[in-house]
Amino acid sequence: MEKEILTTLGFILTAPSAYIFLKRFSHLSEMYSNKEVFFFAQYIQEVAMLDASLLRFRPSEIAASSLILASLQLKKTSGWTA
User: Fold this and answer.
1) pLDDT tens digits for the chain (82 residues)?
2) How many whole angstroms separate alpha carbon 65 and alpha carbon 18?
3) Domain ranges in the chain?
4) What is the reported pTM?
5) Residue 52 to residues 37, 47, 48, 55: CA-CA distances in angstroms?
6) Any idea what the Cα angle at residue 79 is, between residues 46 and 29, rounded to 5°?
7) Helix axes 59-73 and 35-48, enclosed angle (nearest 10)
8) Any idea of the CA torsion for 6, 12, 13, 17, to the nearest 10 degrees?
9) What angle do CA 61, 67, 68 make, to 5 degrees?
10) CA 10 from centre of chain
């Protein structure tokens, strides 16, 4: 019902993807705002889409883990800091 109302009003509803979370996470921290880290994390996400066993994880978890992995592999940081 709500979806029909929002569609009638012109709203476009989509589910958030891992890419949207990746962009958000990379903007939140200076450590992860490096373009090289971002593009490598994006590549890791694309490879992860090929593995059906990773579908059990939420898009936000895949984005965070790909960002950490990319950063560690490129030796830009020592990992996630809270």
Assistant:
1) 787 888 888 888 788 899 999 999 888 877 777 899 999 999 999 999 999 999 899 999 999 999 999 988 988 766 566 5
2) 10
3) 15-73
4) 0.76
5) 24, 11, 8, 6
6) 80
7) 130
8) -170
9) 90
10) 27
What amino acid is encoded at 82 in this protein? A
Q: Alpha carbon of 76 to those of 19, 36, 43, 52: distances in Å?
A: 20, 10, 17, 29
Query: For tokens 């373009």, what's the residue?
Result: 35
Q: What is the dihedral of CA 25, 31, 34, 40, to 10 degrees?
A: -70
Q: Is the dihedral of CA 74, 78, 70, 30 positive or negative?
A: negative
